[in-house]
Amino acid sequence: MQGLFISFEGIDGAGKSTHIESLAAAFRAQNRTVVLTREPGGTPLAEKLRALALNEPMDALTEALLMFAARREHLLQVIEPALARGDVVLCDRFTDATFAYQGGGRGFDLQVLAQLEQWVQARPDGSLRQPDLTVWFDLAPEIAAQRLAGARVPDKFESQPVEFFRRVAAGYADRASAAPQRFVRLDAALEKHKVWQQLTQAFVRRGWLAIMVAANSGPR
Ligand code: TYD
After folding, report:
1. Running along the chain, 220 residues long, what does each successive block of 10 average in pLDDT?
2. Which of 68, 95, 120, 157 is the pocket-test mutation for ligand 1 (most atoms within 8 Å of CB)?
3. CATH, residue 170
4. Which residues, including other chains, have CB under 8 Å from residue 12's CB and lie 6 or more apart?
5. Mutation to probe ligand 1, out of 12, 62, 112, 120 (largest number of atoms < 8 A from CB)
């Protein structure tokens, strides 16, 4: 079995989480071993970096360095070994989030981020590790804000004003247009089962999920 690396992106409130769980179940129903993980985080050290990055005020370069430090650790300890075993890695956010949040949202220098990306995601053969597919839950920031309102205690990013998320959304759109083959855009404003349909179609089309498995699973 070939390993498969899938990342999930979108502004806060776009509804990634339930779909990631359902997708994990669908892959398991096909006897694939699934590693469900997230960024920043995914290892004990990276989770500590996450707690700092999501809760402490800091300048944008410090924040970007923490995101990439956590990513390096996560790649070496979890993602690369899982892909080498042939597992399916479902990762809630990856580098596109750094370009969208630190680059778009906070306005940090994209060229510096691109340099960090080259260093952190370099593989021994000189190629750059990127997801095989990035599922982008695209949602208007105003709708996301309504969904998030009162849902839970917001972290540093979730408590940002809607303008911040407009810039984050634009950051995702830029990354998607720079790598259109890697991205699948979902209209996350649709009802949950329709979002699931769009999502599974992308996987069925690539031969990664069987039609029957896709039809028999999905978020409740
Ligand atoms: P999120 O993935 O939404 O997790 P939860 O649903 O548990 O809140 O939260 C992660 C937050 O971190 C989110 O607001 C986006 C932010 N983030 C960055 O700013 N840069 C990054 O590189 C990554 C991976 C996440």
Report:
1. 96 93 97 98 98 97 98 98 98 98 98 98 96 98 89 86 96 98 98 96 97 86
2. 157
3. 3.40.50.300
4. 144, 148, 157, 158, 165
5. 12
